[in-house]
Amino acid sequence: MQPSAISHFETGTRKPSFDNLRILADSLDVTTDYLIGRVDDFKALAGADRLHRYYESLQGSDRKMADDLITMLAKRAQEKK
User: Considering only Cβ atoms within 10 Å of each terminal Cβ, which end of the chain, N or C, has fewer?
Assistant: First the structure.
């Protein structure tokens, strides 16, 4: 990536594309959530992104268990409203 492009991103005169955002995050070893200000910790992921990353590492019956647990919790939250 050109230094001038990075300068534009830093000064706010241009916004990076999704591809450039991912390249910057990989190069700096931070999350894209950190670069766009969604989290304060440079390794943290915001909300559902964090859960999705964990979910992707699960296999078969563990995914089913996670689905069932999330469904149960969502129903319980609806009942409390």
Answer: C
Q: Let me know: does 23 contact 29? Beta carbons within 8 Å.
A: no
DSSP code of 43?
T
Domain boundaries, the chain: 1-45, 46-81
How many CB atoms neighbour CB 31 within 10 A? 20
Instruction: Give the mean model confidence (pLDDT) for residues 11-29.
Output: 92
Q: Other CB atoms closer than 10 Å to residue 64's CB: what's the count?
A: 11
Tokens of 2: 């050109």
- How far out from the chain centre does Cα 2 lie? 25
CB atoms within 10 A of CB 34: 18
The two three-digit tokens of residue 3, written as one number = 């230094």
